Input
Amino acid sequence: MKHLATLDRYATLFGCALIAILCLVASLWSGWMLIPLVIFVALTLLGFHDLRQTSHSILRNYPVMGHMRFLFEGVRPEIRQYLIESDQDEEPFSRDSRALVYQRAKGVEDKRPFGTRKRVYDAGYSWLTHSIAPKHLDNSDFRVRIGNPACSQPYDASLYNISAMSFGSLSANAIQALNTGAKLGGFAHDTGEGSVSRYHKAGGGDLIYQVASGYFGARAADGTFDRDKFRETASLDQIKMIELKLSQGAKPGHGGMLPASKISPEIAEARGIPMGIDCVSPAGHSAFSTPLEMMRFIGDLRDLSGGKPVGFKLCIGHRREFMCIVKAMLETGIVPDFIVVDGTEGGTGAAPLEFSNHVGMPMNEGLTFVHNTLLGAGLRDQVKIGAAGKITSAFDIARALALGADWCNAARGFMFAIGCIQAQACHTNHCPVGVATQDPLRQRALDVGDKSLRVARFHTNTLKALGEMAGAAGLDDPRAFLPRHFMTRQSDNQMVTGDEAFPYMPAGFLINGSGDDKGYTERWARADAASFSPKD
Output
């Protein structure tokens, strides 16, 4: 089947070569056959050039035929205008954000004519309030120090990093290109739950080691957490932070299974699992079952890692449960160095449709809730907050910072940077550009050297744009963004400020009972540090 799939991808090239040979033979009888001979020889030579070039993955996997994609891209503005006028426009994120990433990753002009492409009078449209006295920011290497007083190895993270994507879900070449790009650009790369592979190490970039319910890289034979294996993995110099994954936005509360047939020797090596046996990632953790146990586990991870920053990632579900965790922080005195808030709009290679569309809280609401709960408990100054969920532009980063984030992570944007075209074939192993496949021939199309440069350029150009947006708002640093710098249209004739839509609550209000709590206090009263179950 694999060989048939290869023949299918190269069928156009083989067909052109065959026709060229037939035309050569036929030209012996008719001079008119020289015309098609020249055409098909040219197409054959073009196909072999496609196989050798490194800039376009789609052409390496689909020589000759892949040029049809670029032909359609050439008339895309006209097609788009037709779709807009017929009210059948595709979802804006998929169109404009992908184009923006491609332009910034390739280092080409990212300006557009004819003004905004958004429907500015539609409900939900948001905009930045700018200043008449803008400022110019020379430096765009914006960083945040992650690590509270209990952390002995704090990390100065970029404001924009690569979110969790595992080796196994992404190809070896994709992982190495992402990590090499992170090294070139000076930012971090989250390993995802598949642990640290040889391709992460080959890139040499900073890593955030994610520990999920499968405990890959720190897994005992029975699937439980192994302290010694974790210590060994976490001791790698490349690993700068440890992230305990509770849930992800695309499928919160859902586990997974990697069938034995898909486990390669390299995946088994990275995850610390045997070949020939299905690998199960449970929906929940076995290392702890209560908020207090979770905090002690985080304390253990910090000690075992040698004092590196340790935090956790989650998509907000029951808000009271997060408050249980915060109460456990207060009771144990063990406070994580960071929390990453994922949104239900986050992506994944494969998830049940109902989970992707209807389970979990969107990032903006989840981020605001986490920020305000930590403020109310008096812990916000000890815990840095990361945000993830369709963050591909400088505007997305600026708005997340305004809502309480200290930095942002992105998966989708960096996937676009290495050539993802959203073919939605991630779960089939037939990714046409070599990003989400373990097929060695398909992933060969993704050139690590070329795509790693695009990853670094996308990061650099996005942070440069973030600095320009901060300057336009009259700020000296994007970390100074507040909700009041943004506005949102609620209906045709009504708009609200960010302060109204996503207000900051008073510091310490959950402890001292002050302020208009908007339902926080009632949930806080039902939260129990000893259990995730509600109090009677």
User: Anything to note?
Assistant: The two ends are 59 Å apart (CA to CA).
